[in-house]
Amino acid sequence: MKKMGLDVGSKTIGVAISDALGWTAQGLTTIKWNESEIDSAYDELAKIISEHDIQEAVVGLPKNMNGSIGERGEASMLFADYLKEKFNLKIVLWDERLTTMAAERVLLEADVSRKKRKKVIDKMAASMILQGYLDSNQ
Q1: Residue 71 has pLDDT above 80, yes or no
Q2: Are residues 69 and 34 in contact, defined by beta-carbon separation less than 8 angstroms?
Q3: One Gene Ontology cellular component annotation (predicted)?
Q4: Count of structural domains within the chain
């Protein structure tokens, strides 16, 4: 059963998928969307879910450093509810504190240009979210 990891931002959604055994996460794509129009990512998500036979989605939950849920966390929870309703997926909210910063650090250490980093940072963060979840279940 494949799983999908999502790093949900206000303008982009990073997408990663697992292998069939649920051992590894690979960054797949970044979807451009408009958060105020929640259906704006529907078609691309539907295509990914169908093509990869996704049964479960791991949505990054950006908590504040003290563990509280802020505005971005609430937006991610709303999006998770949307996914569950529209696609009938099992949904897991995964603490994603610092994943985007970690992804940025990896890309900087790999000497990836700023322009290229901007293109891959979200799907890399999604991959880190999904891999953290997969590792916790093994």
Answers
A1: yes
A2: no
A3: cytosol
A4: 1
